[in-house]
Amino acid sequence: MARIVVVGAGVGGLAVAARLAVTGHQVTVLERADTVGGKLGRYTHDTASGPFHFDTGPSLLTLPGIFHELFEATGAKLDEYLDLVPLDPIVRHVFPGGGPVLDSCADPAEFTARIGAALGDRAAADWQRLWRRADRVWRASERDILRRRVDSPRDLTRLAWRLGDLTAIRPGQSLRGLGRAHLSDLRLRMLLDRYATYTGADPRRAPAALVAVPYAELAFGGWYLRGGLSSLADALLSRCLDLGVVVRTGATVIRIDAAGGRAHGVRVDGQAAPVPADVVVANVDALTVYRDLLPDPRRLAGLADRSLAGFVLLLGVRGNSGLAHHTVFFPRDYDAEFDAIFGAPGRGVRARPATDPTVFVTVADDPAVRPTDHEAWFVLVNAARHGTVPGAVDWRRPGLAEAYADRILDVLAERGMDVRDRLVFREIRTPADLADSTSAPGGAIYGTAGGLLRPANRGAAHGLWLVGGSSHPGGGLPMVTLSAQIVADEIGPAW
């Protein structure tokens, strides 16, 4: 039996703790915040009409089979803890210039028919051709990448991919290039580009292999958890406690002790004695690990802090807006938005708030999260990370957040969804707020190392492992859960 310390109680940290505890290890989870869940946050705003409840992180659960596997591996059934509600549409896409909307769904034939009805037969045929490519990429990725350790690009070259897999994945091509090669309709290209942002990346630079992201969503479905996605954190905490895991909140780890090249404990702020450990699992951003907790200039140099962040409005709205659970309102110039978010630091061009951004609105049809005859809106706009360097925005600059919130509401009004006279309240969450609440560097949503290949799960010292969105296989609830499975399998059982 090993003494294992998990740093961070996000989904990845709780999932790996439960998996390790069920195999006989002594597991302690240390979390700096007062609650568990990490970026899977929640917020309640009380009003005279009643409370509004918000998920302040993920709003969609995909690849539910991964979560069924997790709970079964820890001796439970997912349905005993969570009520999964399938979504149709998964996302309603509202394109610039008016015209028909496009509702995505988990039935490939039905979605193709919807594309044909909204955008024409050629667009539907294009999508079918792309879908066949995405299927090959998904199968190769799921088999060879997502469920195994990948320590370096050399590991990818050694995988036993068939020639057809390599042709489908096509190393060197961008997701934008893939869209241009397969999709003649600009609106479908915009739809595809949006999935790069699910990994924190710019579609013009993101690898074409990320076509597996829409495939996973549209082949296996999108799900809501009744009561909110944060109920997943509650369920995982319950599993951990039932399995004997010690979970300490309000415990900020300030250093990983790894003298002699082996992890043997952590230091907690305000605590004189170290917390001993045979194994340390870090469920914090890789940049934070190698910059602050266990400084490693070599590994730090390999981390690209170029992942996007998010600017969020939490709105209490009177009445019924008729929106789908998820609605994305696209801009006229998608490239201008990415130019603003990422800037061009090499040319001295600073990042800035996009003036005409894509706006993603989540409105759960769930009486448990809002008063009668009201709606709880979670409004997300992709944004540059917080900071003072050319590729970032100082979101603490006086007046900026309020002015940008006004602009987003104006953009929604311009796109046919004016709620300015129906607001009960509005609250703002900037990338700086996310950085403060979750220790995500710059407020990066999906980890600072955006893109396909993330930092390795095996850490810089023997007995140190990394889980979570900034490490392999990537960001998003399913991927961080798979990272927990990879690490738990590598550590192995206590017997």
From TrEMBL:
One of its GO terms (molecular function) is oxidoreductase activity. The keyword Oxidoreductase applies. Residues 12-290 form the Amine oxidase domain. This is Phytoene desaturase. It comes from the Bacteria. It comes from Micromonospora craniellae. The gene is crtI. Belongs to the carotenoid/retinoid oxidoreductase family. Pfam families: Amino_oxidase. Pathway: Carotenoid biosynthesis. SUPFAM superfamilies: FAD/NAD(P)-binding domain. One of its GO terms (biological process) is carotenoid biosynthetic process. Keywords: Carotenoid biosynthesis, Oxidoreductase. Transmembrane segments: none annotated.
